Structure formats: C-alpha cells, structure tokens
C-alpha cells in the first residue's frame, strides 16, 4: 500500500513542477491550486476516521504524503497543519463536535489549517501565554496576541490555546489553559491580522484578539485541561514535520547526485571527486537513518503507545540531516545553487525552518537530556 500511495502522490506532484513553486515564491503567493487538488484527492483527510468521511489512515501514511510532496520539490508546510490540528478535535472533542466539523473538513467544505499557541512574550514557554478567554454566560471572550500563526487567510477554523484561569491563580503552571475552535469567518473586527514577512514563502501572521466571542460549545474538552490536550498532538506534529525534512533531504541528495554525475569540470564529472561525492553520500545515509527513527515513531504513535522520545528524536535527526544535505547540494552546484532557476536556494531556505520550528532543536536536546537520560533540567 505504501508504494501505491507514494506513486499516487508523486503523480499529483508532477503536475506542479519547480516552475510553479518558483513563481509562487517570487510573488509570495499561496499554492491554492495544489492544496485544492490534495484536498480533492483526500490526502489532507487521510487521518480522519472513515465514520467521519476520511480515509482512516495513520500518521505513518500522513508522513508518506508529506515526505513525497517535499521530495518532489514542493512545500507541504502550506497545508500540513490540517493533518495534525484535526487530531485535537478527534481525540478530545465531544461526539457532537466531531460530527459537526470533521465530515466537512474531510470533504473540503471547511479548512482547518491554523493553530494558535505561540505568543510574543512566551516563546517556547507555553505555560506563560497571556491570551485570556473569559467566560461570560454562553460565550468566552478572547483578548490577547498570538504570533507566527500560519495560514489564517486560508483557514475557516482555528484551534487556539488560551488561559481561562490566570497563571497566578493556579497550583501548577500547566493548569488553567483551555482549547477552543475559533470560527474565523465570524471573527470580524474583533480579530486583527498582521502578516509577517519571512525569508521563505510561508504565510504567517501576528493576531490580535480584542473581545472576540467564542461559543462555549466550541471549547474542546474540560476547561483548564488544554495544555494536556495540546501536548497529545505534538508527537504527531513532530513526526509529520520530520517526514517533510526527510523529503527535503532526499530532494537535495537526488538533485546533487544527478548534477554531480552530469556536470564535467577538468574533463571528468565532478562527482568523481571525493570532496564532492562523500558529503552527498554522508548526507544521504543520515537522512535514511532519520527516516528509520521517523518510521519507528510513527509505528508507536499509530499503535497508541508512548513515543515522545522517538517523536522528538526523529524531528531533530531529520531536520539536522536535511540541513546537512542542503549544504552538500549547494556546495555541489556551486554558483548555480544560488540561481533561482535551479530551485535549490528556495528549498535551502525552506529546509532551515525546521531547525527552529515547531520546536527548537535545542529544546529537543534538553528534553532528551532531562526526560530520557535523567539529567538535571537545563533551562
């Protein structure tokens, strides 16, 4: 089945060659046609259970889809959030909420592409977010600011984490946080969106909430338990984004090995020089090793077994391997790697993102050091 899935995704991606992505990058535009075709093919709903209109597949298959998109030269970050964001509703939402949203997401009638946790002053310390959701009868009133929130302009619903109890009033820092599904179509002037220009074509924004009312029925699970709900989805996010890095790494290796075999300098292919060949070969082995850890993490996740160590490790290993492959490819292409027409410089910029997002690799190291190896807390 995996081979058939890979072949089908590659066939779709073949219709969106490098020229398509290069033009979007030049204009800073969203790949709407590509995302729509992925939606129509059911790929973005692959992890939604069949009873809600999805394919009922696992994070393993979701990772295959994202890996192949990036290996083809595309950028799955334009739409990957729908795969893991809906998991918050699936795992912790009520049956009424699942029936209300998931079938529409599966059909493509609703877009669930936005996930709002990060804030300007909290950084990676999620427990210190300050966006407040105050209960007033049948609604919660949102006030606060979120930053680096992507795809808001191309999403109908957004999963959001906010404080329902101030930090100073809770016993544990992780208490008092709640999760909501925000209908962006009804936000009006109570939500201000400021786009943030970045080094890659990755639509992201700063959001300011000023009295936005969210129906209480849109709260996911119990009030105050939101931190636990969000954490439960982070393993899936790390595995899926590791898959994108694996795809990026293989893209660079594919391009570099082909170019090194064809490009002749001083009367011989440049790939016959160990200084060119060996870095590409080393990068390939590291990408394949990261893919093995990704597969292990995905298998554990799909079996509903603990996988935090493996999920964090595969995200770290895959992003580092992809970055090494990116540099090996740029060295192989030399000056041509800097030329936009070759596509490498765009993918080079995109590959750099996952060293710091959705979690910094330094925090992954601290997690493994403390929670896996039992050393003292390092931050």
Note poorly predicted spans: none
* Shape designation: globular
Largest sheet: 4 strands, mixed
**Whole-number average pLDDT?**
97
Percent in helix: 40-55%
Topology:
Layout: H1 2-14, H2 18-27, H3 32-40, H4 59-71, H5 81-92, H6 95-107, E1 112-116, E2 132-136, E3 139-150, E4 157-163, E5 177-183, E6 191-196, E7 204-215, E8 219-220, H7 226-262, E9 264-265, E10 268-269, H8 274-302, H9 308-333, H10 344-352, H11 361-372
Helix pairs in contact: 1-4, 4-7, 5-7, 7-8, 7-9, 8-9, 9-10, 9-11
Features:
379 residues, alpha+beta, Butyryl-Coa Dehydrogenase, subunit A, domain 1, Butyryl-CoA Dehydrogenase, subunit A, domain 2, Butyryl-CoA Dehydrogenase, subunit A, domain 3, 4-stranded antiparallel β-sheet, 48% helix, globular
Description:
The chain folds into 3 domains: about 110 residues, Acyl-CoA dehydrogenase/oxidase, N-terminal domain (Butyryl-Coa Dehydrogenase, subunit A, domain 1); about 110 residues, Butyryl-CoA Dehydrogenase, subunit A, domain 2, CATH 2.40.110; about 140 residues, Butyryl-CoA Dehydrogenase, subunit A, domain 3 (Up-down Bundle). Helices cover about 50% and strands about 15% of the residues. The protein contains 11 helices and 10 strands. β9 and β10 form a beta hairpin. α1 runs parallel beside α4. The protein is globular. The mean pLDDT is about 95.
